[in-house]
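Quick one, T. Sequence first:
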Amino acid sequence: KQKRILIKSNYRKQFTTFKKAMIGIFLEASKYGPYDSDLLDKLSNQTNFKEFFHGTAPETRNRWKLVLRGLDDFYVKKILMELDLFLEETNYVLKNVDFKESIIFEFIKNLNRTVYRLKNTTPEDADIEYLSENFIWPIFGGWDMEDGYRERDIFEKMIESI
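C-alpha cells:
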C-alpha cells in the first residue's frame, strides 16, 4: 500500500512538471510574450489550455497554429526530451501498477508509440500535425478522436486509479 501511495504521489508530481515544461515550450514556440508560473499553472487545466490556445475569442483562435508553425528543430528536440523523461516515469508506473480501465493502458501504449516514432525521425522530418493531433491536443486539450472533448484529464484519472 505504501508503494502505491509513493508511486501515485511521485507520478502526480512528474506529470505536473511535464505539463508545465511542455506548456512553456508551446508558449515560447508561439512567441507569446513574457509569462510567469501562474500562467503555466492556469494552462495546466485542460479547459483553460483549450480556451487559451483555441478559444472563441479572436485573440485566441490562432494561437495553436502559431505554436505549430513555431515548432522548429530546437523546440522539437525540447519536446522529445520532455516526452522521453515523462515516458520513463510512465513506463515505471505501467510496470508497477495494475489498471482496471483499458483506455488508460491504451493511452499509455499510444504515448510509447508516439515517442518512439518521433525519436526515430529527424527533427526536420517530425510530423508536427501527427504530434499535435495524436498526442499534444489529447493530453493538454482533452481531445478524444472518438468521443470529442473529455470532461476529465485522462492522466489525472489514471493517477487517481493508482
